[in-house]
Amino acid sequence: MVPARELLLHCRPVCSLWRDLIDLVSLWKLKCQREGFIPKTWGQPVSDWKIFYFLCSLQRNLIRNPCAEEGFEFWTLDVNGGDEWKVEDLPGDHGRVFPNSHVKKYFVTSYYTCLKSQLVDLKAEGYWEELMDRTRPDIVVKDWFAARQDCGCKYQVCVQLLSSGHVPLGTFQPDPVAIQQWSDAKWREVSHTFSNYPPGVRYIWFQHGGVDTHYWAGWYGPRVTNSSITIGPELT
């Protein structure tokens, strides 16, 4: 089949007949099926199959290097206290195996606060302004964190939807999570979905980190990995 962007940019403007054909619901539903976005038995209602197709085709994790495979590449180290951020191999000392066997590494914090962030430019990632403003698709943010069993710690995360001038249009900032010494050291997931946010979102700012609560030299603070930001429909 002809690529979707070619259909819209070069074929649709040719004449009214081509425009009507390219606007057919059945065309975009078929493209979704052929590219594996949905099964043929898909029964959920879709208000606009064309938009649905583009959101599916763009959907991926917008956080780069989420599992520390490239060290600190793509991350900004906003606060680098104590013995600073470090990358370690799973499961780590006094740690637990991660639920996803494909995740091999994590970032770990120290005895003074450590925070790191990424700024996602939505236009650069393919999400044009009209798509975001008219559709306002769900933005799903997830993060994973864990403590060492032998040390208490405090984990925090903040995610903001920003305008072109970096004005916050939506914020997710739950209370910091305090984990006591001799915990189960299990990996825990935090998740939030931004819906019905104002038009004008152009960037997403993601920051997480924490500190150990015993102030031990080394890397005894919360461990974080497998962070993600995805936009669009939930696909199963």
TrEMBL record:
Ribosomal protein recorded as keyword: no
A GO molecular-function annotation: ubiquitin protein ligase activity
UniProt domain FBA: residue ranges: 52-233
Domain of life: Eukaryota
Single biological process term from Gene Ontology: ERAD pathway
GO cellular component, one term: SCF ubiquitin ligase complex
InterPro entries named in the record: F-box-assoc_dom (IPR007397), F-box-like_dom_sf (IPR036047), F-box_only (IPR039752), Galactose-bd-like_sf (IPR008979)
Keywords, comma-separated and alphabetical: Ubl conjugation pathway
Name this protein carries in UniProt: FBA domain-containing protein
Organism annotation: Vombatus ursinus (Common wombat)
Name of the gene: LOC114037153
